[in-house]
Write a structure and sequence with these properties.
about 260 residues, two-stranded antiparallel sheet, 10 helices, 2 strands
Length: about 260
């Protein structure tokens, strides 16, 4: 599915690059010389001289493949670790809706773009630009584009998780990590990311948990059992987070944890 998505995206990019040439007669808009190229727009003229444009199968496939982009962003980049850490941080602070889910997702997306920038730059220079310049064919572009993504995921995947999914797949023809297919590498990478995110979340929870325990003990000693400790501890946790410049510390630590910068 990932290869199909990449083929369609690359084909659309090539189609759009050649769409600026004006059509001649009742012909198809030229798409270049790629063997995988499909005309993006069909121009037809009726008997009364009116021209009509019809969207081809390529555009329909592109629109269908776009639905898999969220899964690609969430499961093959740094997004999973970041959004889980942000969610745990919000729970540790005792804030149920602040920051909102939209803000956390947006912040996680832009931080993901920042962390993945070196990987995307390699894909653009090694695969996309040569393909758009017709220096390589689509299959070669796919192979080159897969390399940086594989290197990133392998660098973040634990050997134990990779061995687990290799064993579950019952593959005996894999000589090394470079032979591991994406169908095995992606779930191993996601498993490692979940484990790492929860480890970071545990470390984040500890100082705020101590504040909750201290406040609860003081309230019980004062006999104020009807007063919720969360209400009293919330200002102290926010103050602590602000004093240590928590957002910069969390995002800086997350970015540095991937080691791609």
């Amino acid at each position: 599915m990932l290869r199909l998505l990449l083929v369609l995206v690359l084909s659309l990019a090539t189609s759009l690059s050649f769409a600026e040439d004006p059509p001649t007669g009742n012909s198809l808009i030229q798409q270049g010389s790629s063997p995988l190229s499909i005309p993006a727009i069909t121009l037809s003229t009726d008997a009364d001289g009116q021209q009509e444009y019809s969207v081809s199968l390529q555009i329909l496939l592109i629109m269908t493949a776009l639905s898999f982009i969220p899964a690609f962003v969430m499961l093959m980049t740094s997004f999973t670790r970041i959004i889980i850490v942000f969610s745990i941080l919000r729970q540790a602070l005792g804030l149920q809706q602040t920051p909102s889910n939209q803000i956390l997702v947006g912040l996680a997306l832009f931080l993901t773009m920042f962390i993945m920038a070196p990987v995307f730059d390699r894909i653009n220079s090694d695969a996309l630009q040569p393909y758009l310049n017709e220096e390589i064919v689509a299959q070669e572009a796919l192979t080159r584009a897969e390399g940086p993504i594989r290197d990133f995921m392998l660098a973040q995947t634990r050997e134990s998780d990779l061995e687990l999914f290799v064993r579950l797949s019952k593959r005996t023809d894999l000589a090394g990590v470079e032979d591991v297919p994406l169908t095995i590498l992606v779930p191993a990478f996601v498993t490692s990311e979940l484990k790492t995110a929860f480890q970071i979340g545990f470390m984040i929870f500890i100082p705020f948990l101590i504040i909750d325990m201290v406040v609860a003990s003081i309230l019980m000693a004062m006999g104020m059992m009807m007063l919720s400790p969360l209400i009293i501890s919330l200002p102290f946790k926010i103050m602590l987070f602000v004093l240590v410049d928590g957002w910069a510390l969390i995002m800086g630590t997350l970015a540095a944890s991937f080691g791609t910068l």
